[in-house]
Amino acid sequence: MTTKILAMVDALGNLIDFKLMPGQRNDICGVEPLIKEKEFDALLADKAFDADWLVEELTERGSKVVIPPRNNRKLQREHDKMMYCWRHLIENFF
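== Transposase DDE domain-containing protein ==
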């Protein structure tokens, strides 16, 4: 059996929170507990987190959504490509 670690870091790459999940689980399943009751200006994530409910929730909160759309998304949306370059901070955390 494998395990996934889903982590949330701040703009400097410091750990804010994390969640352990079964390795066969989809990443999007663990994001809600991570963002619950947390305030942030923007959420940077990869295509695995491109879900309508997440984009809507973040938009309602006033957070900037920096998640590239999946290739198979019918309605493609724009994302800040310059800001997305900072996503390496989460990769560097590991």
